[in-house]
Write a structure and sequence with these properties.
heterodimer, A: mainly beta, Immunoglobulin-like, Ferric Hydroxamate Uptake Protein, Chain A, domain 1, 22-stranded antiparallel barrel, B: mainly alpha, Serine Threonine Protein Phosphatase 5, Tetratricopeptide repeat, two-stranded antiparallel ribbon, 17 helices, 10 strands, 5% strand
Chain lengths: 1045, 554
């Protein structure tokens, strides 16, 4: 059969020559591709625009194409020397967009698909693919932390579930991750936001991001180098009280609490605090015999001087961090094969000391045309990275301890050892620099191979069969050493320990499709059927030993530690998906377009009876501008109305064991020391899991109406979509009467289909391409994303709470309210005097001048649980991106802004910085100098107290809520491209140099460090918009080079 | 199979230590330090007021609400334990190849444990739901409206256990034997106010009882042997939570250990054993209660007047003290096992609220570190996770119950029981805390070269000092002194009907000095029991049927 497809080319041939010029300025066009139509015979033009090509005798047409120009077809049946002039492309409508399992011209798309401008994408100097995507596609919100290599929240059209809201990412047809992709290798990014994603069925609910990587293009070998080097600044940090202000605040705190003669172990007990010379010995002064260095003992007399000015801990743990990125790529192609090869090196230091991301990557994409009907190829990406990451948005992170450690504590004691809260009465924070220093030799490494192989055969004139097999093998490896401190109030007495772990995860996708493409008369038909199998598996093992005699990193091996008390752990899991799908595209006369698709998925995480789901979608578009009655409307170049409807699904975070009742055994859960041995418990079982065999997909019905318009002589592109996404059968942990503890014990409860949610919103993108005079060209693109989230129904329960953070529960999820809303008491002021207190409702006995006055929501004269209300919403009204670019002769400028509007932030860090009763330690300067006193009443900060309570920090209240809107300049750059004439003699086609600034400024009213807040758990929708001490984004300055030859 | 059912039974035992159920925490600890200790006049919560802020309402009361985050921890642990016991019974019913004798023995243990967990919940929450093995989501008739059903279930289970458990389990000293069931059944009758039902059981246990290891019940010569991990499961141990360390469970973040996790915070701050956290500080009131008079007897009525024991303000009490004080608490200048002398305020996290003293019954000696403590990578935790048993019932406890049952009918018998407990200490001055000699952690004694660390005096009551007028008070005081810091005090106060008066008097004496207690007040008729967790009320009533009624006043 194969022979049928093999063609031979033993016919006579002829040689054709020609020149290619730009129609506008008559200049030659170099590197334009000249292809013999219907074959893979091709060549490229020289720098003078000339070409020569051998045309098989049976062929008569050449196609000349070049980036930025419309294709031109030339008949060479009767000529051997042709002059071709190319018109600059005026519209992106013919751009090819890769959608689910196929590609379409942009003008033929019927769904809501954002196409990312890849050139812009590359401009932001970031380490991960997610961060690069921020603000680049309407409907897509990406929020990351400032930590190099940290994961980001990606939300397409907002939050639509209580579990995992991350979209599916498909790279060259294989399910993968944006995280570690080398952004320089990306050829195109498109985002399927509506029913267009339904072809991905159960994986499509959160949207689909489709990425293709670069392929070799026909022509001579092209080499390009792109690199930049720069410095990320440490940023402004926290504004914390000085030592004196802190001491005064402690006195104030005690006076406010009715202690007439304040005292402190460090500051004495006089009318005002006395700052000592030493904090160990406690409240020590020069001349005290115990301050003599000969008496120094790290355990019993760790002599430590007071920092009388105050240590700026933020500055201590941060640095101006270098970053550099280098990419070299080589690509070429011919009618027989093409290749793209690249190497990347990224070194992005974090502003936190000792933290950063280094990644080495190689990509090799090749394709072979065995003949003009059979193509095979592969895409391969290999990277190795080292990326020690610490927990962000958590209480132990250095960015949290940096505001908790008291200002009077120096970094080191007099002997050069770390100083800390072991000096008395200074709280329990940890020396943040010591913490971070002790992580410097820890390792967190990955190596990863991602790729696929594919084959494609054209047969029976209109059919193409394609098979592709690809996947990922990711190996992760880490170790860390836990030092025992000596300098802190806590944690000085354990044994050191060393933990080492390694794991791998693999997944593969095997896809087979057959496509049919035909045009007859005014009918265009494309049909596709396919099958897909997806499998993933992971395995991890780790061990810990303790009591290492040497803490030297060279001795860090498991077997050099003590076997006493050693522990190990391991885990594994697998899941799979088996699917069939079909898709039909029909176009009539280029005006009326209809697409339909259907997918059938069977997922292993559900029980057999309920495993299979069907996901249909239909969409249609009407290109109004092609109608005769529109021909005269000159300002409209193209106008397309679209409507789509589709059903999608999600397996959210469902565990493969979800359907099953399970018993388990685990030492801490079910072992018991029956013999009193103290270290050898008998092993037992416990009911570990309640299964639910009826749990099935979370289903989305998404409908979308929108239009694409090209206006004003192709200068203005506008796309606006309105959508409604109804999620039913939300997957969430079972609750309600029958799942109560008294029936289920402490077994884990299954995920069940519970509740409904709805999002509505508008996405828009507007681009204007303009020129001023002859030399100035500019592009302005605005992107707009909004969603309005509402929990429609939670059966069985009126609401459920978010997690407890330290002492309070901050969020509540309730019907009729958005997910993750902040819930608590509304502060309406501060009690100013006894009279004010007397005439106001009672507040659980904790009412006095200087504390918060809460709103009596139900007006019953008593402030209690029933007066709590919704005090904030972490969901933004909209997010937006604004991209500007100008060019003037050889100079170019671009700027990119990203903003979020209308969201609230719960600033949890204030529990520590504003309420010294909560935990002793650092205090915000504003709090130290401007808290309420009878003489300072014009303030929103309540009085300092020694014991918090209901009317200050004892409950969730609106004091902690802040407006979270911001507008951030993500990048600006100015570039200069050397004149081609001067570089050509060195064989250089293009040389551009640029200077760039990133995160240059932020406009916000948020009073915390950074309003751009990654959620604390990106795999769950619990607690977002809560600032628990975030690794901030800070300004960076870079210089870079782009070189092509 | 039998192996599987035995495994489930061990799983049911494994929650006796107060840890291991999803949702547990410090408040579910076997020692009941929060629900039986901080709630009473024994101890302060400790640490800074906002640290484990959910336990602060247990000394303030006015701020205690059904949404408090500490109460579900204990509730969850108890019902998880009940369901694990039910899992044993339900699985036993379908298991094959088990002899009838073995099946009965397994059943009896499971029913003992089910009663134990119900009883724990009952003491704390008052109006609880009885949950036997027939309760399932399809049979949701259970409710907390009828507490008779709860007592019937507890009494029925314990009676079955008493009648069917063996006297000894050989080396498996952690299992509940016949005598543990007898004593727990007696305790259940005590809590129901039925001393006449308890007395014969107590007589039997005191005369014939044996530990699960087959040793006849007796008081240890050395009071502190009951708290020394090296001497656990002694002749005095009737039923105890068994704990273990370095056993593959872990205190590392996210782990759930088999050591005494409930008391992991309850160590001196920044010094001594452990690396943290300064909770559960014995109260000044408790210290003052150890004053003794010229007869070597406690001051039953006015121990809190006069000078304070260890008063830091300059004029401390200098009279005689019951020597048990220095095994109950760490006091400034007194040896803290072998950790050197307690330095006073340097080991107290927040002296204004936490007072002067550190807990002592749950700690370990320096020489025991590494042997009875955990290892791991957590910042703090491994050195506060200890394999010391938590006494749930010990023999002196049993003897003092009998004194309560006897005093109204046989004053001498009651006095003899009280004196038996006192004489264990009075007759063994060599076991008192000594200054100037080394501590031997194997025996919990100081070397003979040492001298008494303070001015100790303890003597038995005589017929002149133990009268029908003061007998009940003397017995109650003896329970306080003997069982201090063991999580029993609050439940005793409630059982005796004197919780409100005792606690409000205590708050009144303390509040001037302790900001955390400034607006504290115990409401009689309400605060005797914790509120039922709001989540439970919402959940169980969610389908429209009222299964749970909140406790009065909440």
């Amino acid at each position: 059969l194969l022979f049928l497809f093999l063609s031979s080319s033993l016919h006579a041939q002829k040689k054709v020559t020609g020149t290619v010029t730009n129609a506008k300025d008559k200049q030659p066009v170099a590197f334009a591709t000249v292809t013999v139509k219907g074959t893979n015979v091709a060549t490229v033009t020289t720098t003078t625009g000339s070409f020569a090509i051998t045309v098989p005798a049976s062929k008569t047409k050449l196609v000349i194409s070049s980036v930025g120009f419309d294709d031109v077809e030339v008949d060479v049946a009767s000529q051997t020397d042709v002059a071709v002039s190319l018109k600059e492309k005026s519209s992106s409508l013919d751009e090819i967009v890769v959608t689910g399992y196929t590609a379409q011209k942009k003008k033929e798309i019927t769904g809501s698909v954002s196409v990312v401008n890849v050139k812009d994408l590359r401009q932001t100097p970031v380490g991960t693919g997610e961060e690069a995507l921020q603000g680049r596609a309407s409907g897509v919100t990406v929020i990351s932390s400032g930590q190099p290599g940290a994961a980001s929240d990606i939300r397409i059209r907002g939050i639509t579930g209580f579990g995992n809201n991350s979209p599916l990412v498909v790279i060259d047809g294989v399910r993968g991750s944006l995280h570690d992709i080398n952004v320089a290798d990306i050829e195109s990014v498109q985002v399927l936001k509506d029913a267009a994603a339904a072809i991905y069925g159960v994986a499509g609910s959160n949207g689909v991001i489709i990425i293709t990587t670069k392929k070799g293009k026909t022509g001579k070998a092209k080499v390009s180098y792109d690199g930049y080097y720069g410095v990320t600044t440490r940023g402004p940090g926290y504004d914390m009280a000085s030592t004196q202000q802190q001491a005064d605040a402690i006195w104030q705190q005690q006076r406010n609490s009715g202690i007439a003669n304040p005292s402190s172990k460090q500051y004495g007990n006089g009318a005002s605090p006395v700052i000592p010379d030493y904090i160990t010995p406690t409240a020590g002064f020069e001349g005290d015999p115990n301050t003599d260095i000969s008496t120094y003992n790290r355990t019993s007399n760790q002599i430590t001087k007071a920092n009388k000015i105050g240590t700026n801990w933020y500055d201590v743990i941060t640095r101006n961090a270098q970053q550099q990125n280098h990419n070299i790529s080589i690509s070429s192609g011919s009618d027989k094969s093409s290749y793209f090869f690249s190497m990347g090196y990224l070194d992005q230091q974090g502003i936190a000391q000792f933290q950063g991301l280094k990644r080495y990557s190689v990509r090799a994409n090749t394709q072979f045309n065995i003949n003009d009907k059979i193509r095979v190829g592969e895409n391969a990406y290999i990277f190795y990275k080292t990326n020690p990451i610490f927990g962000n948005q958590s209480e132990g992170s250095p960015f949290t301890t940096a505001f908790r450690e008291d200002a009077i504590i120096p970094v080191y004691d007099i002997a050069g050892n770390f100083a800390g809260t072991k000096s008395q009465d200074l709280g329990n924070a940890r020396n943040p620099y010591a913490d971070i220093y002790r992580t410097k030799d820890n390792k967190q490494n990955n190596w990863d191979i991602t790729g696929n192989v594919f084959g494609e055969v054209d047969f029976l004139k209109h059919f193409t069969a394609r098979t592709t097999f690809g996947g990922t093998i990711d190996n992760n490896y880490s170790y860390n050493f836990n030092y025992v401190g000596y300098e802190n109030a806590e944690g000085n007495s354990g044994a050191n320990s060393f933990s080492e772990g390694a794991g791998y995860s693999t997944n593969w996708t095997y896809t087979n499709t057959v496509a049919y493409t035909n045009s007859f008369g005014k009918h265009n038909v494309k049909a596709l059927v396919g099958t897909e199998a997806v499998y993933s598996y992971y395995r991890f093992l780790g061990g810990t030993r303790s009591n290492y005699f040497s803490e030297n990193p060279n001795f860090w091996q498991l077997n050099t530690g003590s076997p006493t008390g050693q522990s190990n752990s391991g885990s594994a899991g697998q899941s799979s998906l088996w699917s069939q799908f079909a898709r039909l595209e029909y176009g009539f006369s280029g005006k009326y377009l209809i697409n339909a698709s259907l997918r059938r998925d069977a997922a292993s995480v559900f029980a057999e009876d309920v495993r299979t789901g069907y996901f249909p979608a239909v969409s249609g578009a009407w290109r109004i501008s092609q109608e005769n009655f529109m021909k005269d409307v000159s300002f409209i170049n193209d106008l397309k109305l679209r409507y789509s409807w589709g059903k999608l699904g999600s397996t959210s975070n469902v565990n493969p064991t979800n359907p099953f009742n399970l018993y388990g055994q685990r030492a801490g859960r079910s072992f018991y020391d029956l013999t009193g041995s103290s270290n050898n418990p008998s092993s037992g079982f416990f009911r570990s899991n309640i299964g639910n065999p009826t749990t099935t997909w979370e289903g989305d019905i998404i409908s979308n109406i929108g239009f694409d318009a090209t206006l004003l002589k192709n200068k203005l592109d506008v796309t606006i979509d309105y959508y409604k996404k109804k999620v039913s059968g939300l997957l969430f942990t079972a609750s309600g009467t029958q799942y109560d503890l008294i029936f289920t014990g402490d077994a884990s409860l299954p995920k069940v289909n519970i509740g409904d949610m709805q999002n509505t919103g508008i996405d828009a993108s507007v681009t204007y391409h303009g020129t001023i005079g002859k030399d100035v060209k500019f592009d302005v693109t605005g992107l707009f994303t909004s969603y309005n989230n509402k929990i429609v129904n939670i059966p069985g329960l009126p609401y459920f709470n978010g997690p407890q953070i330290r002492n309070v529960i901050v969020t509540r999820n309730e019907e009729g309210h958005p997910v993750g809303a902040f819930y608590g008491y509304e502060v309406i002021g501060i009690f100013q005097n006894a009279e004010d207190v007397a005439k106001s409702p009672t507040q659980q006995g904790d009412e006095s001048p200087g504390v918060f006055k809460y709103k009596d929501q139900n007006a019953d004269g008593v402030i209690d649980d029933k007066d709590r209300t919704y005090i904030g919403n972490p969901n933004p009204d909209f997010t937006y991106g604004l991209n500007l670019s100008f060019s003037y002769k050889s100079f170019d400028f671009s700027g990119f802004f990203f903003g979020s509007h209308g969201n609230d932030i719960f600033n949890q860090t204030k529990y520590f910085t504003d309420f010294p009763d909560f935990f002793k330690g650092g205090i915000r300067r504003e709090v130290a100098v401007n808290s309420w006193t009878p003489d300072n009443t014009n303030t929103s900060i309540p009085k300092l107290r020694t014991t918090g309570g209901f009317s200050t920090d004892g409950v969730t209240n609106s004091y902690f809520i802040s407006k979270g809107s911001y507008l951030r300049c993500k990048q600006m750059q100015i570039g200069y491209t050397m004149p081609a004439k001067s570089t050509a003699k060195f064989g250089i086609d293009r040389l551009r140099v640029y200077i760039q600034g990133a995160n240059l400024f932020t406009i916000t009213k948020y009073d915390g460090l950074d309003p751009e807040l990654q959620s604390s758990d990106i795999n769950n929708t619990v607690g977002f918009g809560i600032d628990q001490g975030n690794y901030p984004h800070t300004a960076a300055f870079l210089i870079g080079v782009n070189l092509n030859f | 199979t039998e192996d599987g059912v035995q495994g489930l039974l061990i799983g049911a035992y494994s929650l006796v230590d107060g840890a291991g159920a999803a949702g547990d925490g410090f408040a579910s600890g076997a020692s009941n330090w929060i629900f039986g200790g901080v709630t009473s006049d024994d101890a302060y919560k400790g640490s800074d007021p906002s640290d484990v802020a959910d336990a602060a309402p247990m000394e303030q009361w006015t701020t205690l609400t059904p949404t408090n985050g500490a109460i579900p921890q204990k509730w969850i642990l108890c019902y998880a334990g009940i369901q694990r016991s039910n899992d044993v019974l339900n699985t036993l019913a379908i298991a094959e190849g088990i002899t009838p004798e073995k099946a009965t023995e397994i059943q009896a243990q499971a029913r003992f444990l089910r009663a134990f967990y119900h009883f724990e919940a009952k003491k704390i929450f008052g109006n609880i739901l009885p949950v036997d093995e027939t309760v399932n989501p399809q049979n949701t008739v259970t409710s907390n409206a009828d507490q008779t059903a709860v007592w019937n279930l507890i009494i029925g289970d314990l009676t079955f256990a008493k009648d069917n458990l063996p006297e000894s389990f050989g080396s498996e000293v952690g299992r509940a034997n016949k005598w543990a069931a007898v004593c727990l059944l007696a305790k259940a009758y005590m809590f129901q106010g039925q001393p006449s039902s308890a007395l014969p059981l107590l007589n039997d246990a005191i005369n014939n009882g044996k530990t699960a290891g087959g040793v006849k019940y007796a008081l240890n010569d050395n009071y502190y042997s009951n708290f020394n991990p090296a001497q656990k499961n002694s002749a005095e141990s009737v039923f105890a939570a068994q704990t273990s360390v370095q056993d593959g469970s872990s205190v590392d973040w996210g782990g759930d250990p088999n050591g005494n996790y409930g008391d992991i915070l309850n160590f001196p701050y920044t010094g001594g054993p452990g690396a943290c956290c300064g909770f559960y500080n014995p109260s000044q009131d408790l210290a003052n209660a150890y004053k003794t008079d010229a007869n070597g007897l406690p001051l039953l009525d006015n121990f809190y007047t006069g000078l304070w024991v260890s008063n830091p303000a300059g004029s401390p009490y200098t009279g005689t003290l019951d020597p048990r004080i220095d095994w109950v608490m760490g006091r400034e200048g007194i040896p803290y096992l072998d950790w050197g002398n307690h330095p006073g305020a340097a080991w107290i996290r927040n002296p204004v609220n936490d007072g002067l003293f550190s807990p002592k019954k749950n700690v370990y000696a320096a020489s025991q570190k590494g042997q009875y403590t955990d290892v791991g990578s957590a910042y703090w935790g491994p050195t506060e996770l200890v394999a010391n048993n938590v006494n749930i019932i010990r023999f002196s406890d049993v003897i003092l119950w009998r004194a309560e049952c006897e005093y109204s009918s046989d004053l001498t018998a009651a006095m003899n029981d009280v004196n038996r407990v006192r004489n264990r200490v009075a007759d063994h001055p060599e076991t008192w805390v000594k200054s100037g000699s080394d501590y031997n952690a194997a025996t919990a004694t100081y070397g003979s070269a040492g001298e008494d660390a303070d001015n100790y005096a303890i003597k038995p009551y005589t017929s002149a000092t133990f009268t029908s007028a003061n007998a009940l008070k003397a017995i109650q005081m003896e329970r306080r002194l003997e069982l201090a810091m063991e999580g029993q005090r609050f439940f005793d106060l409630v059982r005796w009907g004197i919780a409100a008066t005792t606690i409000n008097a205590y708050i009144g004496r303390e509040k001037a000095a302790r900001p955390l207690k400034a607006s504290a007040n115990f409401t009689a008729g309400k605060n005797e029991y914790m509120p039922i967790p709001q989540g439970t009320v919402d959940n169980l009533n969610a389908d429209g049927t009222t299964r749970v009624t909140q406790n009065p006043g909440y």
